[in-house]
Amino acid sequence: MPTGWLIYNQIDAEKNKAYIDWFIEEAQLQQLSLVLVLREELTIGIKNNRRIITIKNMPVSPPQFAIVRTIEPLLNLHLEACGSNVFNSAHISQICNNKALTHHYIMDLDIPMVDTLYFKKADIQASQAPMPFPFVIKEVAGRGGNEVYFIKETADWTQCIETVSTDIIAQSVKVKHGKDLRVFVVGKDIIAAVLRENPADFRANFMLGGSARIYELNEKERFTIEKIVNHFDFGMVGIDFLIALNGELLFNEIEDIVGSRTLSTLSDTNIVRAYVTHIKKVLVSN
Questions:
Q1: Number of structural domains, the chain?
Q2: Are residues 190 and 260 in the same domain?
Q3: Residue 74 contacts by C-beta under 8 Å, 6 or more apart in sequence?
Q4: I need a labelling partner for 159 at 20 to 30 A (CA). Which of 25, 27, 43, 205 fits?
Q5: Average pLDDT over all residues of the chain
């Protein structure tokens, strides 16, 4: 029976115990052995000119596969170099956990997006806003609607650049505020789409107090999403779109460690089962 690791940090493992148990149960149903590994107990590196992995300081062999639920592309890369099948891959993890890098790659697919400018933290000038007010600033590594700042005037801009801790992107806000679309993808399959709305905030995230409903994609929207899906080798991700004033989808970001609470709340879709099925197919093909 193929054996894999489900990697979480301690805090997230405690918050997601039910999800972890669900994952392990679904894997067992498909004849895969999956065990939880805490990131804090895992050490990777090089010793005696060889890549090593230890758990609680004890050397271990790399797993046949690993589902990485931490944001650390180097961990994904190291496990791949040791021979493990990693979900999501290091390539996907690196791209999707940097908003500027994600836009760079999606631009090559000729997919509509809002005006987006990239800035290094060290190069941000306090006296000069990057575009006409209002606009949005996002830290490139932010997740879940956090590290996002709505800039209405110079005072907001000045305060923001004193607050941000990483490189940023600046984006136009010529979109429907408090409204976006998340598309759940496993491998090459579009599993479901959820429209999220929050009339009290410019961010639509469900966990920030918004509402959500299942959304039926039309043919044009599905074609746009499939261009992204067919270009990358995803494990499981959430592809997020803003809504233009004319209703058109505008690419926003790709969530690497995507959660499925919203989807599970709104439907009986078993996305974990779909993900485990995808993982098993990849293992068999390799």
A1: 3
A2: yes
A3: 44, 90
A4: 205
A5: 93
pLDDT (tens digit per residue) in 45-73 = 999 999 999 999 999 999 999 999 999 99
Candidates 244, 234, 193, 285; CA nearest to 105 is: 234
Residues 85, 122 within the same domain: no
pLDDT of residue 206: 46
* Residue 78 placed within a domain: yes
Residues 121 and 76 in one domain: no
Do residues 187 and 256 both lie within one domain? yes
Buried/exposed code over 76-104 (b: 16+ C-beta within 10 A; e: otherwise) = bbbbbebebbbbbbbebbbbbbbbbebbe
**Is 273 part of a structural domain of the chain?**
no
- Rounded to 5 degrees, φ, ψ at 141 are -105, 10
**167 and 194 fall within a common domain:** no
| Residue-number span of the structural domain to which 168 is assigned | 116-172
Query: Peptide bond preceding 59: is omega within 30 degrees of 0, i.e. cis?
Result: no
Instruction: List 72's β-bridge partners, or say none.
Output: none
pTM of the model: 0.94
